[in-house]
Write the structure tokens for this entry.
Amino acid sequence: MDRLVVGSAPAQADDDGGRDVPAGPAAVDAALLRRLVAAVHRLWPRGWQPADVARIVARRLGARPGRLVVDALAADRAAQPGPVPQWWDDQLTALDARVRWDDDAGWLGGWATREGTDRIAALRDAVEVLALLAGLPPVAVLRPPPGGVGAVTVTGAPGPSGSRVLDRVRALLAKAESTTFPAEAEAFTGKAQELIARHSLERALVESTAAHPDQPGGVRISTDAPYAGAKALLVQEVAAANRCESVWSDDLGFATVLGFPADLEAVELLHTSLLVQATAAMLRGRRERRGGGRRTKAYDEAFLHAFASRIGERLRAATDAADRQAARDTGADRLLPVLAARSGAVRERMDTLFPGVTRARLTVRDAEGWQSGTSAADRASLAGSAPPSRPLTGRR
């Protein structure tokens, strides 16, 4: 990280362009923004994406520095010489990354005012963000960044989803999240998975004869505390049910899911909904448990592990049923080689990006929490079942 000298000084030529820049605090603020933009820009060829950067800063430094780095992301986007891939702008839009200042020299002051803090605290946040960005390790390059080799530029406004099937899935999952009846939520979620599985099979058959078929890609899904292991297990279970592979990076707070584009979109949709459902069910379970609603970490973890495990079984059952129906409709001799080829391509992508992957076991220590979580995912009585340990693919 470049050293910054803070103090009063006469106006001088800017090192980069020979332009006159303001003296004193305004010069420092403009220089800080340039350093922040350079720091985030250096991360793009190292595999990081805007959403990843905002997440890691908020995770390690807190919400306010997380919002500060979003300003740097907005400034970096404004400095891009041309159009960028649509997914890049989608991430920035989701972060509400916008240039809210008229002049770089007034950027930090405006940010401090919006945050309700003083200049010293704002300077401290900016320097801490710079130090963190400088020390981030490279991660898997899931998609070429703007200007990278193989980057694809998409122009024009995107549609709401690009798929009527996925719009129906979203509607079903919204119903599952809003109902207070667990059995009803399970029915909506199961129907959503059936639609997703059929959509995936149809897409696979179409792509098998395409001149330029889809290739495996990847997405990152947050697994921040609390209960990061349980959240990672939920990602893995949903991914496995949708022909994807998942690798958990505990130290960075995310799971990387690898698969074909339609399957990855399905995983993101289902995981987001199921996490909402699991959390709501866990809160209900606390109230219903013996001794009242007292929270214990062991109970909550066991509950979420069991929920993820049982939901994974239900999702895989729905996928298997769709596979059998598709094999009857299109012929197993046509379908099975296509599915095998896609599974092999995903596995090859995983071996390329994560050659040092290991398996860890998540141990459940609260039998009551395990049974309650299983019941929340499937109302069948499983009294007396032992809480097992679960394998999880990840990097430590």
Summary: Residues 1-18, 151-161, 379-392 have pLDDT under 50 and may be disordered. The radius of gyration is 24 Å. The first helix runs from residue 25 to 43. Strands lie at 12-13, 20-21, 217-222, 245-249, 254-259, 358-363, 389-395.
